Amino acid sequence: MIIPSMRDVEVADLEQMGTIMPEGWYTATISEAEEGVSQNGKPFIQFMFTVANGPQQGRKIRDRVFFTREAMPIAKAKLTTIGYSTDQERQFQPGDFVGRGVSIKVEHEQGTNQQGLPRTWANVTVWKRVGDMQAPAAPTAGIDEDIPF
Q: How does pLDDT run across 35-57, given as a tens digit for each residue?
């Protein structure tokens, strides 16, 4: 068997096949939280989000919150978004995070993998409190010609 070249596979094809989460806003819950250290020695908490509703319901996507001096403002903003108090130092407890709701924005990033082949990543770029997203504007009221009165 010969495996064909897949360079022509587009992001839209991958989305349609369900292999990459489409870009957009999702309401999700934190289903897992675990601490780790990156290959560069940077401490982080990795959050697993599970989409709560819509066509992607049940899909999972990860995001990491890093705890370096440079990343502290982002870490504080994200943790505050999910209602986690950052006023004092505390020991990491996964149960402090699991089950919390959040709206997340997923965006795609183009790049290459370790073998130099093209790759698309789905990244969580923004966290918002559930309910903080702007609702779409209501359609403008118009005259409906089909109504008989």
A: 999 999 999 999 999 999 999 99
User: What is the domain range of residue 66?
Assistant: 11-128
- Cα of first residue to Cα of last residue in the chain, in angstroms, is 68
Task: Note whether 64 and 127 are within 8 A (CB).
Answer: no
Query: Residue 141 domain-assigned?
Result: no
Q: Tokens at residue 93, please?
A: 């407890």
Residue 53 covered by a domain: yes
Distance CA 81, CA 69 (A): 19
What is residue 92's three-state secondary structure? coil
**Do residues 34 and 45 make contact, with C-beta atoms less than 8 angstroms apart?**
yes
Is 0.85 surpassed by the pTM of this model?
no
- Asked whether residue 18 is domain-assigned, the answer is yes
| Other beta carbons less than 10 A from residue 20's beta carbon | 19
Q: Report the CATH number that the domain containing residue 94 is assigned in CATH.
A: 2.40.50
Task: Tell me the chain's radius of gyration from C-alpha atoms.
Answer: 20
